[in-house]
Design the sequence.
């Protein structure tokens, strides 16, 4: 029987070889796909499907794994991790690197590195490095500069496309930096993006007083408040329902867990309707009692209160269940000894139950804080938010960091500022790592590994 090297060394060797095999197979799949396109060109409107890359990669990966299994025999025991590693690389590692890369660029929905099809212009004649167009280059291609100097372009024929760079343009003639690799029939402007260094981060911190700090402070308050409003009622209900003498205890447990069983998207939508200022049943009930309607979703501060109320409904069953589970681990002999010693119910609660619940509750509290710190669905599903003077529409009254990043990247008044959204996401990532390290410190997870 072949054994892997002991400790972390064997783990990293196995993961490194499997990850390298996947990357090598992917690269080989891309090269084979490009070779197929070059050897047997097809019209651009009927190009080869992209999934051929995966098929080619799989055909390369299988013999590569057989080879590795013979050269490193213990590696075959790790092959069951291949699907997990592939998904981890594709849907976690690659997006992280892409987000970090975009955070240092001015990548937007307009500057996306793709050709602008609205600038399609016919090429009348090709003379060495010069393209003669059907009209004046600047108005047709809408270059960033009047002379089109340094403008990236895409040229196409019926079966080929390539990217070139304009050296300058004068009238109908565009002079390229190098001769085109084929005779093109059409040319397009490329909406290019540039590397801007720390410009996105500078923009974020330059508005720290009006955007970043208020959003961050509310984010921390929301995360901590969501833990408190969920944990305290859940703890109280768990303590009550742990009483074996309580009548209909099973019915109460079932009824109180219903809100946890309902999908959050449905619960948030229902609460949003109930909290409607004009037509919501909650304000109608307040009106019957003689109170003025409360602007739950139209006032900045009441919107935040509404978010915490919805979080209460969504989270208290979790804490109730966690409390019941933790209470079941406390030996009955401890309570029996307390009764023999004459301890009252309050003394038993404060001297036995709560201290014994503290240890299992610490990781749950920290984990819940980290979850609510990035609780995108609740804030986003609450719909339009009241604005705050001096803030952009992407960072309104109830927005937390993750919704601010999403709106910046995918809405941003139609601009889709992916670079700026990526920079905000990197800051969120660093904050989340910091919270996780605190979690590890309190729970002793890293000490256990060592």
Sequence:
């Amino acid at each position: 029987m072949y054994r892997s090297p002991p400790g972390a060394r064997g783990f990293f060797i196995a993961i490194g070889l499997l990850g390298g095999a996947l990357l090598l197979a992917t690269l080989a799949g891309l090269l084979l796909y490009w070779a197929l396109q070059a050897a047997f060109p097809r019209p651009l409107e009927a190009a080869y499907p992209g999934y051929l890359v995966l098929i080619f990669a799989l055909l390369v990966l299988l013999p590569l794994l057989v080879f590795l299994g013979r050269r490193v025999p213990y590696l075959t025991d790790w092959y069951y991790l291949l699907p997990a590693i592939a998904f981890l690389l594709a849907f976690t590692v690659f997006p992280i690197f892409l987000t970090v890369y975009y955070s240092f660029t001015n990548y937007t929905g307009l500057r996306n590195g793709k050709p602008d099809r609205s600038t399609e212009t016919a090429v009348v004649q090709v003379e060495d490095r010069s393209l003669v167009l059907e009209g004046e280059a600047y108005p047709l291609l809408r270059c960033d500069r009047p002379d089109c100097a340094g403008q990236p372009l895409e040229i196409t024929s019926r079966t080929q496309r390539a990217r070139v760079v304009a050296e300058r343009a004068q009238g109908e003639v565009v002079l390229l930096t190098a001769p085109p690799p084929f005779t093109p029939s059409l040319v397009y402007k490329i909406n290019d993006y540039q590397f801007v260094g720390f410009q996105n981060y500078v923009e974020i911190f330059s508005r720290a007083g009006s955007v970043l700090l208020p959003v961050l402070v509310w984010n921390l308050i929301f995360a901590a408040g969501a833990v408190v409003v969920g944990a305290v009622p859940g703890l109280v209900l768990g303590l009550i329902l742990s009483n074996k003498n309580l009548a209909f205890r099973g019915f109460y447990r079932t009824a109180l867990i219903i809100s946890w069983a309902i999908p959050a998207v449905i619960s948030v939508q229902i609460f949003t309707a109930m909290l409607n200022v004009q037509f919501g049943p909650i304000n109608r009930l307040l009106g019957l009692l003689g109170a003025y309607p409360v602007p739950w979703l139209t006032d900045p501060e009441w919107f935040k209160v509404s978010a915490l109320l919805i979080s209460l409904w969504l989270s208290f069953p979790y804490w109730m269940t966690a409390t019941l589970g933790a209470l079941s681990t406390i030996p009955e002999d401890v309570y029996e000894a307390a009764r023999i010693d004459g301890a009252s119910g309050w003394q038993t609660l404060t001297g036995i139950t709560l201290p014994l619940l503290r240890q299992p509750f610490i990781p749950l509290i920290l984990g819940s804080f980290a979850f609510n710190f990035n609780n995108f669905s609740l804030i986003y599903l609450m719909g339009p938010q009241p604005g705050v003077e001096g803030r952009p529409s992407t960072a309104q009254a109830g927005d937390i960091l993750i919704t601010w990043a999403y709106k910046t990247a995918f809405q941003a008044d139609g601009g889709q500022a992916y670079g700026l959204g990526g920079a905000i996401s990197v800051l969120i990532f660093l904050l989340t790592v910091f919270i996780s390290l605190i979690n590890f410190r309190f729970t002793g997870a890293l000490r256990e590994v060592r």
Notes: Strands lie at 115-127, 130-133, 152-156, 161-170, 173-176, 186-190.
